[in-house]
Amino acid sequence: MKNCEYQQIDPRTLRTSTTRTSSTLPCGRKSSHRLRRKWEVFPGKNRFYCDGRIMLARQCGVLPLTIGLIFITSGLFFTFDCPFLVHLTVFIPVIGGVLFVFVIVSLFQTSFTDPGILPRASPDEAADIERQIDNSGSSTYRPPPRTKEILINDQVVKLKYCFTCKMFRPPRTSHCSLCDNCVERFDHHCPWVGNCVGKRNYRFFYAFIVSLSFLTSFIFGCVITHLTLRSQGDKGIIQAIQDSPASVVELVICFFSIWSILGLSGFHTYLVASNLTTNEDIKGSWSSKRGEESGNPYTYNNIFTNCCVVLCGPMPPSLIDRRGFLPADDAPQTVTSDAELPPFMAKNDTNMEENCQEFALSCTA
Questions:
Q1: How far apart are alpha carbons 240 and 247 in whole angstroms?
Q2: Phi, psi (deg, nearest 5) at residue 201
Q3: Residues 199, 186: Cα–Cα separation, whole Å
Q4: Which of 111, 309, 340, 347 lies at a 20 to 30 A Cα distance from 76?
Q5: What's the CA gap between 63 and 69, in Å, rounded?
Q6: Residue 300 contacts by C-beta under 8 Å, 6 or more apart in sequence?
Q7: 62 contacts: CB under 8 Å, gap ≥ 6
Q8: Residue 144 pLDDT more than 60?
């Protein structure tokens, strides 16, 4: 047999050249890819809309109910009560309109704003933390500690390790089981707004419940005034209700909701004045422990200062960068299946080298 010239080819060189020439393949052979944004691969249980500009909790089914109750009650008020009460003063519909707009705006800001989610540790960061934990404990008789202690205003505060996010939670941070995220200054998860309430949206939440308290009380008082004025003279209360049945619907909705809304507003006013969170208050984080009184290390011991810090402080930036682009290394590959590969690329490097060597021996023989 005639000798064949053979030169061993490095398979990695073939892969590199194939990658370079893949851009010249016909459109039917190449699957075009686009840069993906971080919200598309976000690990938490959130839903994103408008290309990541709006984020909600995955379990946000109560939010439409909240919006519906506000719109229905306010719509009935502006349609059936304001035309009658406007003869008393034009400020009634004006005040009602201002309160309604303020409630809706603060509700949407609370629901669509990042509450202060902390990004999860990268694999390198998680490995480094694990090494620190292993070095700090002894594996012979006890597991390594999963807490750290720091001093805040001369008071010891424990930092717990989050097994989901692979990091030690900063002070006042807690992991929400519904959203599956660690949230800074975690207050609570509110199904009525469809989002967690934390460091970045607590001021909007407080504005929402306070303004909703004013709106509910305002509508409640106006409806009672409306029915009272209609029942004067020869007409009784029954005739007044028959003339304006929508007012009864408003009265029932406001009566059963005003107490919980006013109570919630009062409770959060106390929390703001004390610089506490709902999570800390329920758990009793700074109450008496083991017979010793433990004060709140975050309070400024001044109601006005606490209110300014909680409600009027600078808005911290979002740390998850949900509309940012993924690095090039994390972008999806152009070729995804062996069917799209050339024949010599469908095998691994070892098999390719063996096949080339066998071909050389057969040619030499």
A1: 10
A2: -125, 10
A3: 7
A4: 111
A5: 10
A6: 275, 306, 309
A7: 191, 192, 194
A8: no
Please say if the pLDDT value at position 137 is more than 70: no
Give the DSSP H/E element, type plus range, for residue 149: strand 147-152
Average pLDDT, integer, range 53-69: 90
Which range in 50-59, 94-103, 113-122, 356-365 is most confidently predicted, on average pLDDT?
A: 94-103
Q: At what angle do helices 245-274 and 303-312 cross, to 10 degrees?
A: 110
Phi, psi angle pair for 46, to nearest 5°: -130, 160
Torsion sign (Cα): 177, 181, 186, 189: negative
CB neighbourhood size of 195 (10 A): 28
Residues 274 and 286: their CA atoms lie apart, in Å, by 11
Per-residue pLDDT, averaged over 75-100, amounts to 93
Q: What angle do CA 272, 56, 33 make, to 5 degrees?
A: 140
Cβ pair 20, 12 in contact under 8 A: no
Alpha carbon distance 184, 329 (integer Å)? 29
pLDDT of 107: 97
β 167-168/155-162 pair status: antiparallel
The two beta strands, 167-168 and 54-57, are: unpaired
Confidence of residue 344 (pLDDT cuts 50, 70, 90): very low
State mean pLDDT over 51-67.
Answer: 89
**pTM: predicted TM-score of the whole model, two decimal places:** 0.77
Q: Which residues pair with 10 in a beta bridge?
A: none
* Beta-carbon contacts of residue 38 (< 8 Å; ≥ 6 apart): 52, 320, 321, 322, 323, 324, 325, 326
Query: Do residues 107 and 60 make contact, with C-beta atoms less than 8 angstroms apart?
Result: no
Would you name the residues annotated as active-site residues? 190
Q: How far apart are CA 344 and CA 73, in angstroms?
A: 70
Rounded Cα distance between 225 and 232, Å, is: 11
- Average pLDDT (10-14) is 46
Task: Return the residue matching tokens 């290390």.
Answer: 297
Phi, psi angle pair for 174, to nearest 5°:
-140, 155
**Nearest to residue 268, comparing CAs of 299, 311, 301?**
311
Least confident of 5-9, 97-101, 218-222: 5-9
